């Protein structure tokens, strides 16, 4: 298969022109590699992109974006059509590419994609973006999530249960009403297009569900309101750097670097003061049972 650069898809996803230009150049230079990739994309995408990113992050990021677009425009599109999944869901889910292109420029200073393992979930129909939230095929693993034994005992789903893992993409405000609509859409979507996946409910392993957030966030904040979307939220022992990454694009920072962080929003100001006072960020783990609300809110 000789792939053509998918300019139309780039426009539909709203990719920034500099990243598109870098990907198009990489596409032309690596046409032979991309042809081989498309012969077996599931097996070859991650090794190929991983090697490219390890050799040179800037060059590898452009190549990874080119490879992701090639797979998305051929393999992924064909699989969506085979399942009868609406084009709107295809484009919404692939919107994750645009989000991670912005992240690569913001956090890594390169044009393209750096997080190939994450994008692979979307390319190979393991994760779907439905409304405000993303949903991934998943099996609970409470040891890996570092749930305390006390939390495991009260979990509504057994360890190893089939569930949908919820992700909150960094795109705008997180409104509870929009999250609830996404949960309803997900139940209808997966029951319709993946009836073979009998899932028990939803889980969410995220810094947004850390009880410590109540120490510096306003009680009426959208993040704290998100807690109420779950039947149960339990603490975990998993530390994270998501406050730094999500609010400032930093993977790590010492006290002096934290003191120099920007304070452009009220959340940045409150989080910075919390971190300077020795505050830590962990993940919380949310459980949500199926609601079975009936008809799908998705357009056919």
UniProtKB/TrEMBL annotation:
Give the matching InterPro entries: GNAT_C, NAT_N
Location of the GNAT-like C-terminal domain: 127-287
Pfam hit, one: GNAT_C
Domain spans labelled N-acyltransferase N-terminal = 7-121
Tell me the protein's name.
DUF5596 domain-containing protein
Q: Which organism is it from?
A: Candidatus Fimenecus excrementigallinarum
